[in-house]
Amino acid sequence: MDPTKDTLAAMAGKLLIGQFHRHVFLCVGEACCSGEVGMAAWEVLKNELKARNLSLATGPAACYRTKVGCLRVCAGGPILVVYPEGTWYMGMTADRIPRFVQEHLVDGNPIEDWVFARNPLPLPADGQSS
Ligand code: FES
Q: What is the pTM of this model?
């Protein structure tokens, strides 16, 4: 039997959906890096978010995390994107994740050397980027 809307709403509440200020997507697909490299980065991301109390948390740095199979860039991975800033990162191997979490997610300073694209949401009026 399919879960009811109330069941899913209760699950969302347990996950603190509605409390997050950011959402990080990390690609662990095999077209932009090996699955092993992607999963190693994912494990470090999970641990770093938990260690800094950013995951399943509230507050201005609260961050939801999702691993995905492809972000359609398919080169130079692991590819990672952070919303709502829409900051796209390349080469996010496990060794880079702690610095990313601290500087971008905690301090609010993207690491420009690793950023290759931007798509903030919502875009400024008329789709013009700043
Ligand atoms: S497999 Fe990672 S972006 Fe496509």
A: 0.93
